[in-house]
């Protein structure tokens, strides 16, 4: 499961919170107030590739969402950070539906958090409220970072999502997007060349559909967030997006949206029964079991295709970014931000962990284990990662022309309308043209509220 599948009900009553704290090493006391516990932030790493700084006796708390497969990687990194720096890092893991409210309540009150895992939907809200600390000075300080490391080490389009009002507040990870996977063996047997655009994808899906019990294509169809992600990626590949820079006025182009809608309804004709009940993991499972010739899905889910323990088709896939016609490849940028709480008294130590964890080496470990991707440029050149996650070149191409998930407050409601409307079009309950009109009305009505 990935982040956008959890964008439901995050205004739950705070009193219902059920937080679980995972303590990663022995705890010690922490100071309150400003950045009073500076430690020795420019101390060289105790081991090659390790974190910078010595922060003996500093006790940090990290706020994140609970119940996901990436906890183990963060726990291992936090253990190693604690061992090498002398600090202590604990994880306050909260169910996603309660995370926003718990973070807002805590950041606006006592200094209980040092590091905050912030979803794009509420990053702007927290930055505007003054809950987050800018990190420009940390990023530009050569003594706090590995040689050659700076803001330029990250993919610029991804790093920019952690910037607000001209200041950098966060470092990104959990990067993913939507790409196309296709069975090289089935394409070769049928004499079909590698698909170059969505027209090729649809033609190949129709030709291969039903042969030896294999569906032509599979993709998410359940209204859990991924349908809007695929649709948004198709808009991006046409140089269009849901909203303008202000995040309020709808800029969805009817022609581009109709092309995206046509892709969904045409693809559904070559998809397996039950498409509208398939989330990202379900679609990937169908592909991994050899029941589809093409899959359009998010990259964390696609990692299962290359896992021989889960997939009977491992090693038989090749990947291309979504491209419409002769346009540029494109995709929706899915990510999370690592930020430092403005009222933390351990900001230098917090930055030390952020830099260490979001750099290539640690992100590569998490990527191989869980299928999420890093945000540094070097990450996409790492041969070990690419060999295990061969969709990386397609992702890198898509991210060069990407739009981040909308962060308007009304997006969860709009997203649901978009997805249920696409489902109606797939079922033939409404025409593609009418479905696009309905989506446009929802964007204009709710986007201005």
Automatic annotation (TrEMBL):
It comes from the Bacteria. Coiled coil: none annotated. Residues 1-26 form the signal peptide. The keyword Signal applies. Keywords: Signal. InterPro entries: Bact_solute-bd_prot1, SBP. Residues 30-51 are annotated as: Disordered. Transmembrane segments: none annotated. This is ABC-type glycerol-3-phosphate transport system substrate-binding protein. It comes from Actinophytocola oryzae.
């Amino acid at each position: 499961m990935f982040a956008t599948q959890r964008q439901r009900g995050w205004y739950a009553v705070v009193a219902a919170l059920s937080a679980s704290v995972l303590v990663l090493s022995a705890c010690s006391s922490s100071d309150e107030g400003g950045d009073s516990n500076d430690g020795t932030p420019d101390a060289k790493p105790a081991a090659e590739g390790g974190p910078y700084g010595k922060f003996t006796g500093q006790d940090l708390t990290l706020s994140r969402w609970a119940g996901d497969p990436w906890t183990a990687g963060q726990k291992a990194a936090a253990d190693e950070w604690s061992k090498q720096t002398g600090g202590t890092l604990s994880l306050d893991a909260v169910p996603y539906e309660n995370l926003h409210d718990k973070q807002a309540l805590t950041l606006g009150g006592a200094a209980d958090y040092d590091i905050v895992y912030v979803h794009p939907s509420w990053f702007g809200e927290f930055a505007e409220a003054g809950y987050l600390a800018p990190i420009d000075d940390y990023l530009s300080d050569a003594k706090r970072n590995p040689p050659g490391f700076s803001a330029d080490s990250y993919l610029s389009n991804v790093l920019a999502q952690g910037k607000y009002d001209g200041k950098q507040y966060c470092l990104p990870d959990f990067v993913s997007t939507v790409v196309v996977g296709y069975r090289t063996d089935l394409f070769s047997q049928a004499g079909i060349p590698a698909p170059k655009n969505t027209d090729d994808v649809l033609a190949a899906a129709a030709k291969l559909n039903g042969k030896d019990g294999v569906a032509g294509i599979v993709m998410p169809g359940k209204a859990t967030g991924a349908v809007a992600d695929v649709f948004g990626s198709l808009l991006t590949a046409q140089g269009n997006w849901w909203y303008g820079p202000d995040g309020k006025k709808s800029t969805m182009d009817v022609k581009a949206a109709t092309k995206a809608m046509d892709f969904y309804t045409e693809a559904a004709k070559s998809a397996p029964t039950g498409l509208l009940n398939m989330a990202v993991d379900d679609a990937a499972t169908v592909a991994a079991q050899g029941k589809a010739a093409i899959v359009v899905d998010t990259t964390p889910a696609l990692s299962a295709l290359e896992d021989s323990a889960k997939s009977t088709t491992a090693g038989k896939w090749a990947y291309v970014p979504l491209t419409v016609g002769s346009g540029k490849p494109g995709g929706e940028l899915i990510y999370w931000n690592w930020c430092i709480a403005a009222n933390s008294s351990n900001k230098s130590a917090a930055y030390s962990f952020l830099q260490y964890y979001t750099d290539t080496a640690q992100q590569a470990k998490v990527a191989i284990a869980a299928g999420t991707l890093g945000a540094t440029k070097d990450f996409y050149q790492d041969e070990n990662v690419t060999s295990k996650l061969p969709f990386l070149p397609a992702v890198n191409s898509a991210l060069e022309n990407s739009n981040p998930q909308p962060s308007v407050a009304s997006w969860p409601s709009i997203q649901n309308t978009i997805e249920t409307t696409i489902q109606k079009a797939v079922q033939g309950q409404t025409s593609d043209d009418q479905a696009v009109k309905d989506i446009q009305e929802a964007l204009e009505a709710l986007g201005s509220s």
